[in-house]
Amino acid sequence: MTQYYRPTKAVIDLTAIEQNLQAFKERDGKAEIIAVVKADAYGHGMVEVARKALETGVKWLAVATPDEALFLMDNAIKANCLVMGHTPAAFIPVAQRTGIAVAAISLDWLALAAEAVDPDLPSLKIHLKVDTGMRRVGIQAEEVEEALRLIERHSFSFDGLFTHFATADEDRNDLFQRQVSTMASIVKKINNPSLMVHVSNSAAAIMHPELAFNAVRVGISLYGIAPSSYVENNMPFALAPALGLETEIVHIKRVKAGETISYGATYRCEQDEWIATLPIGYADGMLRGLQGQEVLVRGVRMPIVGRICMDQCMIRLPEKMPVGEKVQLIGRQAGAQIRIEEWAEKLGTIAYEIPVNLTKRVPRIYC
Ligand SMILES: *Cc1c(COP(=O)(O)O)cnc(C)c1O
């Protein structure tokens, strides 16, 4: 294992991921859980999370790109794998050879895939993506019959059918209802019970277990993060956050009243203050917009003062503390907690953006 000397690290609790998986299994009954591990498992580490998911009984993984699927294979992850986004024609023979399933995202894509397939290889596994309202990728509802003809003519292996919701994380709304009913009528028309039908992301899998069909695609909440504050406020079960971000004080000093801290001198000490330096900055994913955010030291919230630098930032303490004192930026410490959702709110964004922006410089440690 690589030795790291800087005390800044992300500690990933794989047991929390297991607990969340278990909670989804109970919530969504017989539906398969498709563990969404794209974007390095939302910053948690694709290989480690995939391994844990498979160990817990998951049989399907989903990623966004063909390269992510190959990365899993290269790391000896043996599972059914679906590429949910666009797959270029050049990948088609690779998908045939490896058995990676790909999303058929348009009639044009089906035509290109038909030209790209190698007839001497096993047939291409496809999951037909229907655009029921997201307007991102997918065939239109009126194109389903034509898509089925192309699939049959070119002997693709028609394994799955799916769609993606635009507003499943909000209170009941028209768009969501329209997407549900469009999809229901397509499923009914195709009427193929061996097909793997999956429509739900985390929000729908939490709020609408009745829509589980035979599989759900769970991403963000696998990691213990709520998809939105609406879902968070209406959670039928508890999620276990998997990611902790921690560091240690590396420097501490008394700064005189009137002096300023960091670039731009944006923070002025009102009195003599204890200022500690932390070895984490925006190049680690501790974005500059987090100036003023609190961190935990000895279970107490302490503010980040002054501009966050690329590699370091400063906090204010009520008293002198030793170099080496533990600091929790995200996660629990001595009964207190700072959640990823709190960072997202401070930054005016969604929780999804936080862990995926923790950079490679922050080692992921597993427990
Ligand atoms: C990312 C993604 C998911 C997972 O969504 P979460 O909200 O993270 O659960 C599911 N389906 C598709 C098509 C996606 O791109």
From TrEMBL:
Its EC number is 5.1.1.1. The keyword NAD does not apply. The active site is at 38 (proton acceptor), 263 (proton acceptor). Its cofactor is pyridoxal 5'-phosphate. It is an enzyme of class 5 (isomerase). GO terms for molecular function: alanine racemase activity. CDD domains: PLPDE_III_AR. The modification N6-(pyridoxal phosphate)lysine is found at residue 38. Substrate binds at residues 136, 310. Signal peptide: none annotated. InterPro entries: Ala_racemase, Ala_racemase/Decarboxylase_C, Ala_racemase_C, Ala_racemase_N, Ala_racemase_pyridoxalP-BS, PLP-binding_barrel. Keywords: Isomerase, Pyridoxal phosphate. Pathway: Amino-acid biosynthesis; D-alanine biosynthesis; D-alanine from L-alanine: step 1/1. It catalyses: L-alanine = D-alanine. Residues 242-367 form the Alanine racemase C-terminal domain. The keyword Isomerase applies. Catalyzes the interconversion of L-alanine and D-alanine. May also act on other amino acids. Belongs to the alanine racemase family. This is Alanine racemase. The gene is alr.
